[in-house]
Amino acid sequence: MWSFLHKLASPPHFYGISARMIPWFYAAGLLAVAYGSVAGLFYAPADEEMNDGFRIIYVHVPAAFISMSAYMVMAIGAGIGLIWRMKLAHAVAAGAAPLGAWFTFLALITGSIWGRPMWGTWWEWGDPRLTSELLLLFLYFGYMALRAAIDDTAKADKASAVLAWSVPSISRSSTFRSSGGPRCTRDRPCSSQEGRRCIRTCCTRCWQ
Amino acid sequence: MSGQDRQLPGLMEGFIAIVRRDLLLAWKRPGDVLNPLFFFAMVASLFPLAAAPSPEQLMLNGPGVVWVAALLATLLSLNSLFLSDFEDGSLDQIILSPQPLPLLGLGKAAAHWLLSGLPLVLVSPLIAVSYRMPADIVGVMMLTLALGTVSLSLLGAIGAALTVGLNRGNALLSLLIMPLAMPVLIFGARTVSLAATGDPYAAGIYFLAAYCMLALTLAPFATAAALKISNE
Fold this sequence. Notes:
The complex is a heterodimer.
Chain A: H1 2-8, H2 11-43, H3 57-84, H4 87-119, H5 128-149, H6 153-166, H7 191-207
Chain B: H1 11-28, H2 31-51, H3 55-78, H4 83-88, H5 90-96, H6 101-130, H7 135-162, H8 169-196, H9 202-230
C-alpha cells in the first residue's frame, strides 16, 4: 500500500498512471457535467422570486467554489514541494494555477451576467466579494507570469512557491469598504442581503 | 577558524551598515530618489487636468488619487531595489555574509522606505493642498501614507527579490505586488475619505498598522528565501 503511494509520487510512475487514467476522468467529468446541466436546467423547480433566472447558480457557485479551493490546492502543493522537495507537488501547484484562474474568470463572468438582471448592474465596485475575486484572478496571473518568466523549472517551482505563500489571506480585507455609510437604496438593495438570499437559495435548491 | 581572534560585527551593526550603504549610494545618485517623487507629483496633477473636476469632486477624489499615485511611485522605485547589487555582484556578498539574510533584507527595505516612502509622505501635503483637502485631514493622510508605504516597501522587497535576475522583471514585479498592495490601497484611501466626511476612521488606521506589523515580521523571511532562490 505505502510503496504504491510512494511510487505514485515519483514523476515517471505518475506520468504512466495518469496517462492511462485521463480518458476515464474525461468520461466521468463529461457525465457529471451532462447530468448537472440537465438536472439544473430542467428538473430543478423555479425560484419563487427570481424564476428561471436563478439557474445560473449551478454554474456560478461551483465556479466560485473551485476558484478559491484551487488556491488552497496550489498553496498546499507548493508548501509540500518547498518543504519535502517533491517535484510532483510543485507540478500539482503549477497545474492548479491555470485551473483556478479559469474558474475565477468564469465566476466573475457568470456573476456579472447574474448581477445584471438581479442587481441592475454588471459590476459593483463596493461589493467585497467581487473585489476579492478580482484580486484572486490577479494573484493567479502573477503566479503564472512568474513561472513563465523563469526558464529553469526547479527555480520556477521554488520562486512561485514563495510567492504563493507570501500572499496572506486577503480575501476578506476589502470588507471595510462597505462601512462608508448608507449605500443601499430600494433601486439597488444591499448586496449583503442579496448575498444571503443567494446562499439561502443555493442551499435550499441543492438539498431539494 | 579565526572565530576567536576576529570579532564579527553584531546584528545591529550589520543592519546599520547596509542601511548606511544604501543611503550613501543614493546620495551619490540623487536622480534615483527624485524621479519617483516627480512621478508621484506628476500623476497626482494629471488627474485634475484630465478630468477637470469641480472643487467638491476634487476634494472627494483627492485621497484615492494621492494613494494611487503613491502606489505607482513606490512600484516604480522598487525595480531598482536589488538590481544594482545583483549586477555588480554585491548581492552574492550580502547572501554569503555571516549576518542573517532576513535582517539584511529588512535593512534593504528600511533604506528603500527612507528613500522613497518617507519623501512621499513629506511631499503629500503639497498635493493635498492642491486638491483642497481640509487641513485637519492632512495629518490623517500622512499617517496612513507612512504606515502604508512601510508595508509597500516590505512587500515590494519580496517581489523585487523574486524578479531580480529576470529580463522581464519590470512589468512582472507590478503584477506580483499589486494584489498584495491592494488592501493597503483600499484601506489607506478609504480611511482618508472617511476622515474627510467626518466619519470615524480609527479602524482603518488600526488595520494599516496591523498590516504593517505583519509585513514587518514576515516579509523579511520571504525576501530572504526569494533572494536565495533567485540567486542560486
